[in-house]
Design brief:
Blueprint lengths: L1 H15 L1 H15 L6 H22 L6 H25 L3 H15 L5 H16 L2 H8 L15 H6 L6 H12 L1 H26 L9 H12 L12 H46 L4 E5 L3 H12 L4 E5 L2 H9 L3 E4 L16 E6 L4 H12 L6 E5 L6 H7 L3 E3 L1 H14 L1 H11 L5 E7 L21 E9 L10 E5 L12 E7 H21 L1
Parallel strand pairs: 1-2, 1-4, 2-3, 4-5, 5-6
Antiparallel strand pairs: 7-10, 8-9, 8-10
Helix pairs in contact: 1-5, 2-4, 3-4, 5-6, 9-12, 10-11, 10-12, 17-18
Length: about 525
């Protein structure tokens, strides 16, 4: 009982230890998580060890190697392989959770804690990993280091197989083959049957007259070479019956090769989209901040061009593969997913997403997209397109922070163009930066030269800018809609505080210079502090 008590206490100690969990999570990410930033460096290191050890063992077959190379391979490389094997065995599952689960079950059922059952479950889980294909490769890859038994050097092949862990391209190829294992196993059975029938047939007809075919092994070897259309020519039939069988086998071989090729090509075409999307998502996860555009419509195309011009990162999601391919051909990150389904965002880290824009041509789709995003993140800023004005309330209830009505905006512009064509044309030029002029927002950073000064203290003429207004956040606002207050043409005595947003108009170069000055002054203030 005392031993069982120690085991249970130790299991709870590990379960409550943040340091233990952090260390184990680090090694698990390093060994298994492709999104972990340091894993690629570990993979490069292991690939170097594998290739260098294989070269050393091959070189040692004929010529003696330097002492330091011997010690490097026998001690360093082997030690790393053993440590990696033990770490993979450790992170495969949590032993202490098995102990805790058995203890809680014994308490609930009011029975004694069965240590034998726990040990059996632990052994079962660990053996499950030990006898997995990759674990067997890892174990056999250690054996070539034992030089006393030269036969063990054959296991150097397993060091080459060990590269499977660290090469995603090879892994994808194996996954493609595994996905078609039923078709490939059927093809293999057909090939084996053909070799068996043709081998026996050629043996019956050629054994007495052909000196190159004296055993069934020779006949099966000829059948395999012939059916693969390789045709070495070391064994050739001499009888009419044998030649007739050869012609049939060649035709069958061509058909089987075509069948095998079609299976692999179809498997790759099915897997290619998934591989490409995984790589795109992997690239998106590396971005510190980016936007998500749902629906690659005409409005989305204009937005994408603007974002690309400004150097802003974004990801396009659309359910139409043809549209996605067009976006990819234009150099954008795009994946084919239905943004109304949870699967579209299950690999997205919304902490890095600045905003999501639902720009499909259907208000209902946009509503479902907003609801879907809100199920993942309550804080993510959502901009939605609305075709029907009656959909505004529904989109707000679905979680949209801002709604764009292109037809309402177009109608307003059309009316204003009739009334004031020159003024509207000037505004339009500013909005689309046609005359190299922009209307931009500048955030007041704490510690910058804007923080705590009045409007008259800032020489906007010096920066060749015009101040249109100040946007101030009201934390006591009753709703998000009234949270931001815009003060147009503020008084010169108005004090500017950190967190305010200045709406300025000017040339692109002027605005860029002004923003850089704000950031630099804030950094200088931070260094002084």
């Amino acid at each position: 009982m005392r031993l069982e008590r120690y085991i249970i206490d130790f299991a709870f100690l590990l379960d409550n230890s943040l340091r233990y969990q952090r260390i184990k999570r680090f090694f698990k990410n390093l060994l298994e998580n492709d999104d972990y930033p340091y894993k690629k460096y570990f993979d490069y290191f292991m690939i170097f060890l594998i290739l260098s050890s294989v070269i050393i063992i091959i070189e040692e077959v004929k010529t003696p190697i330097a002492t330091w190379l011997y010690y490097y391979d026998v001690y360093f490389v082997t030690a790393v392989f053993i440590i990696e094997y033990l770490l993979r065995l450790w992170v495969y599952n949590d032993v202490h959770k098995i102990v805790i689960a058995e203890y809680e079950e014994s308490l609930f059922l009011e029975r004694s804690f069965e240590l034998k059952r726990v040990l059996k479950e632990i052994a079962k889980k660990k053996l499950e990993y030990i006898f997995s294909p990759l674990a067997i490769i890892d174990l056999f890859a250690i054996l070539p280091s034992y030089r006393e038994l030269r036969i063990l050097r054959i296991f150097v092949l397993f060091r080459v197989f060990k590269l499977l862990r660290y090469s995603q391209n090879i892994t994808h190829f194996l996954q493609v083959l595994a996905a078609k294992k039923l078709e490939l196993s059927t093809l293999l059975m057909l090939v084996a049957f053909t070799i068996l029938v043709s081998g026996i047939s050629i043996y019956v007809f050629e054994e007495r007259t052909n000196p190159n075919i004296s055993t069934l092994y020779d006949a099966f070897y000829w059948a395999l070479v012939t059916i693969s259309t390789v045709g070495y020519g070391d064994i050739s039939p001499t009888t009419h019956e044998g030649r007739a069988i050869t012609m049939i086998i060649i035709l069958v071989g061509v058909g089987l090769i075509s069948f095998a090729t079609s299976i692999i090509v179809s498997a790759f075409s099915e897997k290619l989209t998934e591989i490409r999307e995984n790589r795109i998502l992997h690239a998106a996860r590396k971005l510190e901040s980016y936007y998500i555009i749902c629906g690659y419509t005409n409005m989305a195309r204009l937005l994408a061009k603007r974002l690309k011009k400004e150097g802003v990162d974004f990801l396009i999601i659309d359910y139409d593969m043809g549209v996605v391919n067009k976006a990819l051909s234009e150099g954008y990150l795009a994946i084919c997913e239905d943004a109304t389904q949870k699967e579209a965002f299950k690999h997205i880290n919304f902490d890095n997403v600045k905003a999501v824009m639902a720009l499909t041509n259907s208000d209902m789709h946009n509503i479902y997209i907003c609801l879907n995003i809100r199920s993942f993140s309550k804080e993510c800023f959502i901009i939605s397109r609305a075709i029907d004005y009656n959909s505004h309330k529904k989109l707000k209830l679905a979680g949209a922070n801002y709604i764009i009505s292109p037809y309402v905006t177009a109608g307003f512009f059309a009316a204003k163009i009739i009334e004031e064509p020159i003024a509207i044309e000037a505004i339009n030029d500013i909005l689309v930066a046609r005359k190299n002029a922009l209307c931009e927002q500048v955030e007041v950073i704490r510690g910058s030269f804007l923080d705590g000064v009045t409007v008259k203290d800032i020489d906007f003429d010096k920066y060749k800018l015009i101040l249109l207004g100040i946007v101030r956040v009201d934390p006591n606002a009753p709703s998000e809609e009234f949270r931001h207050k815009f003060q147009f043409n503020p008084d010169e005595n108005e004090r500017i505080e950190a967190g305010d947003i200045l709406i300025v108009m000017g040339y692109t170069i002027s605005i860029a210079h002004f923003k850089s000055q704000v950031i630099e002054s804030s950094l200088r203030h931070g260094k002084k502090v």
